[in-house]
Amino acid sequence: MATDRSHPSAQPPAKYPRTPSRVDPNNPPWPAYRGYHEYSFAHATMGVRLPTILGKAIDDVVKTLNDEYDEEKIVDLTACIARMEDLMDDLQDNAKLRPIIDDGEGDIPLWNKMIARYFRGKDFMNAPWLFAEAYKYRRLHECFSLSKYWKTYDVFFRQKCDTFSRSSDAVFELSLRFAKPWQQDSSLSQEDALEAKRVMFHELTQICLWGNSTDLSLLINMTEEDIKKLQSTGGDHLAATEQNILGNHLSKVWEYISSSKFGSAGKGGRMDFVLDNAGFELYCDCVYADWLIQSGLCSEIRFHGKRFAWFVSDVTRQDFDWLLNSMIYGQLFPQVSDEELASLREMGARWKEYVKQGKWIYEDHAFWISGYTFWALKEEAPDLFLHLSESDLVVFKGDLNHRKLTFDCHVPPSTPFDVAIGNLATEAGAPPVLSLRTVKSDVVCGIPEGKAEQLDKDEPGWKISGKYAVVLLSEGRKGEPVQF
Ligand SMILES: O=P(O)(O)OC[C@@]1(O)O[C@H](CO)[C@@H](O)[C@@H]1O
């Protein structure tokens, strides 16, 4: 495996970024992380984690194969396994990135134009990490999309369901508390009522944030105890972990959401969630979205998920439906009390009602499963940009979305968030953007000067532990007409 310590990105970051006109997917505004950079999490991911993840995915398919009885389907699935093995060879031999085979899916032009234009001759280790990693998941999808019977097969579905059922303590801690419809104490003065709302907002935003620290792709070998610790949602725990939010715009977010700028007069606002992980994290997102509707702060929530299995645990429509249905009909928690089960059912029923009434809407644009960063959103997905420009706040959940917002490059950590996300902050019509991210990879911005350097010294590994987080807001240029 090549290692080149003299490469510019192994050096301290340049003070000034690349001029915007020279930025492209292979040349981020600051130097990219690439698989051959040993100092970066890119190296371990491309060299070790991705082959391990793929190996487990093959095991999953073999399990399905052994349970199948129809010969035609068996033969078809055997071909999927053979394609997965080819992908494994390509990963392990560090092959060049070939075009995606046309499987009739709508995202093919996005992928193949991008490969032709920017990554001709690049391989898994020398292409920017973000692109190479996303490409691997698209290739994994191709293994199935070329089949006759298994086009929508999700190799990670079993794992995603499993972690939700293993999160029972935190699941019921939240359902017991939030199942009953939320109502404000009518005896409170206007000022006290607003303060009570602020406190709830603060707490639930944090629950939504820390829901991101249980990540299947990283925590495959976690014990039940480890999971419990990470998922604790109690007040004391949240107060303690708030100290780990290194860049924290929570107060600014509340100021905006509680102002007349959010939503139209007398009507709550529209909030969009660009989702990250299924299972427990999605459950936390929904608890938050539920309260945002009940409190009247929001009248509409749009959830944006992926069209197919992505970065192991990302939400697909199937995962979204699975969560809501299994809360009502599932038998995932045989050990819990009737009261606990009833609370989960009550909440699940309310959430399904939101879907029926159009207060919660699930969407899955092809751009979210492309290799592009969000710097390219307006250019490559103008329809999506226009759609999001109508939102009052777009919340990006998790590490991968944060990498895509910030071009996954060596940006100096004290760079303000609205500089690091480029034109998604500066374009006319750009919506307000909030990143709720527990830090699980190299790129960091929006934190105080010197903090990253201090943590590098005191806590090696802090960037991938999920112990630290950022809550960063860009105000955007909402309301200004979008120009193409
Ligand atoms: O987006 P998420 O679920 O918060 O994190 C995704 C993740 O686990 O995958 C990547 C490495 O494979 C890292 O960016 C990150 O740590």
TrEMBL record:
Region (Disordered): 1-29
Record remark on domains: Subfamily III proteins have a conserved RTxK motif about 40-50 residues from the C-terminus; the threonine may be replaced by serine or cysteine.
Example of a GO biological process term: DNA damage response
Protein name: Sugar phosphate phosphatase
Damage-control phosphatase ARMT1-like metal-binding domain boundaries: 46-454
Similarity field: Belongs to the damage-control phosphatase family. Sugar phosphate phosphatase III subfamily.
Gene source species: Rhodotorula taiwanensis
Enzyme Commission code: 3.1.3.-
Cellular component terms per the entry's GO annotation: nucleus
Record bears the keyword Hydrolase: yes
Reactions catalysed: beta-D-fructose 6-phosphate = dihydroxyacetone + D-glyceraldehyde 3-phosphate; beta-D-fructose 1-phosphate + H2O = D-fructose + phosphate
Pfam family, one: ARMT1-like_dom
Record key words, sorted: Hydrolase, Manganese, Metal-binding
